Amino acid sequence: MTLSFLIIAVLTLAGAIAAVTLRNLVHCALALVVAFAGLAAAFLQLDAQFVGFAQVLIYIGAVAILIVFAVLLTRGGEPPQQQTFSLSWPWGLAVAAVVFATLAWAISGSFAARREPAAQVEATTKQIGDALMTRFVLPLEVAGLLLTVALIGAVLIAMRERLPESRTDNEGLRTDQPSAPSGVLDRAPSGGQP
Amino acid sequence: MTPLAGYLLLSALVFSVGLAGALTRRNAIIVLIGIELMLNAANLNFIAFWRFSEQPEALTGILFVLFSIGVAAAEGGGGLAWVIAIYRHYRTANVDEVNRLKG
Hints:
The complex is a heterodimer. By secondary structure, chain A is mostly helical.
């Protein structure tokens, strides 16, 4: 339990708590960046340099910016007037507390948590690349396919809705067409009575 | 407290904070932020167990985290696209006001 770990833990937790409790959504996204940076520092402290810098590149560089864009596109920049928490927030808080209590109980009673770290661990980029190209090549291909599907799906979902507009046009035509025969039917008796 | 227990407790705390945020907030973007926090807590668990394992040269923890980051990126992109589409349709991003399957 070193001082650097304590600093990283406090920073990460403060960022995470601020990210889910602040009212302004842009502040939430910026607090999330702090939490991601703390987790990247924890990865670096655990001798996982590649994952640490991948965390910086992907989460701080891409995911946080994506969230900021989503906030701006949904006009959440201004603080909302109504309540920010749902009506059933005590239940959600209770579920989270129970989950944390269970995890802490399992960690405190675990024999694996008393394990000492290995002397010197080396995970160079060359070793990771070798493993990705030999033993884990099938998961790598599947991950690439998943990312391609997610890219196309996100573009398709977020594209402007065109189908409902054309459908309303068709419905407008359909409502116009029956109105003409009904007008003829209305006019026929009126023409026959006099 | 041993170092591994410290990292596991930090991971459990971040997971619980993310779960509480995903369950209690109304805005869909904060729900996605909570889900991202939970995935990151799982990644920290993987890295901690890899560092304290008996065979760290197998690199399984690190590669699992890399694939987990890829899945999380796909989830985040798809989720935010849904949020934008729902906002455009309902003019709101609050998850408790979006309660119809038929638009």
